[in-house]
Structure formats: structure tokens, C-alpha cells
Amino acid sequence: MNNISQRDAFWNRVYEIALNDKNIVIVSADMGAPALDKIRHNLASQFVNVGIAEQNAITLASGLALSGKRVFTYAIAPFITMRCLEQIRVNNAMMKIPITIVGVGAGFGYEDSGPTHHLLEDIAIMRSIPNVTVHSITDSIMATACAETSCSISNANYVRIDRQVLPDIYKSDADFSAGINLLKEGKDFAIISTGTMAHAALKAANELAKDGYDVRVIDLHTFPVNASNLLKTLSGVSKLATVEEHFMPGGLGSAVCEVLADNEILIPIKRLGLPHDKSYCYEYGGREALRGYYGMDYGSMINNLRHFFGK
Fold this sequence. Notes:
About 35% of the residues lie in helices and about 20% in strands. By secondary structure, the protein is an alpha/beta fold.
């Protein structure tokens, strides 16, 4: 069990690189973190806090990028994306100004703060914009690697990270360049997950194995989807399920279906995610309870997978 969050792993690596690269600048929209404090104190000339002004953060970051800086913007995930959508679309997609947009608390990461702070649409929205790459982070190892590659990007880069401290799934030498990684071998069926749901998918596959299900687990962490790698990873499976802490339209399941349809591949697929008909959740009780509101708690997910995979 790692005792560091994705957020702190990401910023720790940025700090290490920034110590030797004065062109790296962090623009924060009134957000703090233990790892950010080191940057703020020790690299004051490379840290800007614009206050609760996320649109201004994107605009300022874009201007700094035009002057040759490698810029990271940081705020709560729904506010640094959807509140800034026009700025990102014009400055970073149309004008191709490369910045890294770091959003913390994707999905139900801020489970105690209500629906304004839940981010259940960002993959659908951000992956629909040309010249924007989306990284849906799984653990602190991936967060560290993503921080490093973000220092040399040539296009806009959105990194969605979680607040929760989770176990590391990957080893320190893991390669994430393909945009998709195989987490568990399996002959018959496959589960594709993204972000924190990779942990639930692995747990589910191991539990299903006790009942004789041989389930492959795939982590699809980068959008646009690398279609050829996805198809290779799915080779031989008879049924496929996708699981995500995201509204189903436009999310992970939709992205996978698009690849299969475009390549004329027919395979039974079940999308498990947050249904639109439940709308926004005003209930409280922790992350698992919020997932349960949408029928995506762990018990419901296992039952749905058993039913879909069959006997």
C-alpha cells in the first residue's frame, strides 16, 4: 500500500524536474497540497496563484506557454475543465498552445461536497476536443510518469487525478506510452476500466475467478484511444464489459464501442457506468454510497458482471 496520493506523486515529480528547469511554471487557482508547498516556498518565481479564477488561470498559462514556458495549471477538476471550456477550446485546441491542465478529484473524488464538485462528464467533453490528450490516472506510479512526460508535450494535456490514497497497481518501470495496459491475463472475458475504477475491476476479476470466470483486466488510461493497441489487447475474448465512474454517454464505454464499430468488430459488450436517468446526486455517505445511488457500487457491479458473462 502506497501512502502517497496521485496528486502528491504528480507534483513531487514536477518539483524535482522544476528544480533544474526554470521554464517550468505552475499556475494554481487557489489550490494547495503538501507537494505544491515545496514549489511555492522553494521555487517562488515559478509558482503563480491566480485565486479562484480558473478561466484566468488557463489564459495566463497559455500566455506563458507562448513565451516558451512549460506550464501546469491546477484546480479542482470540474472547475479547471468545464468552467474553462471556451478558453481551452480556443487557446489550447484551436491555437495549439501546449499546457498541462491538472484536475484533482475527478469522478466522486470530492464525495462530501455535492454535485457541483462531482465530475462525471469530463472524459466525454475533453476527448471530443481536437488537440487535447486526456490522461485518466490509475495510481501514483502512473501519476509520476505522467508528470514527467507532461514536461515535453507538444499539445494540450488534461490530467485527471484522484484525492484518495490508493494502492499502486503498477511497478515503477511501467510503460504507459501505448495508452492502454493489461493488468490481468484472462482467456474468456475482459473488463476495461479507467482511473480509480481499475482497482474495482481488478478486485472484481479476482472474485469472479473463484467462480470459474477467467477475466482479463485492461486499463485504458489515455484518450484519444489507441485503437490498434486496444484491439490487440482484446484479442480472443468472447465478451467485454466496461466500468467507469462517469456518465455513460461519451465516456469510456462509448470510446470503446466507437473503436469496435469503426473496425467492424462484433463482440457482446456491456457498459457499466452512471446512467443519465439518475441525473445528479445530492445524497451523501461516502464514495461507495454515491456509486450505489447509480447502481455502480461494488456489489451491484459484481452481480451485473456475473449476469452478463453468464455461466
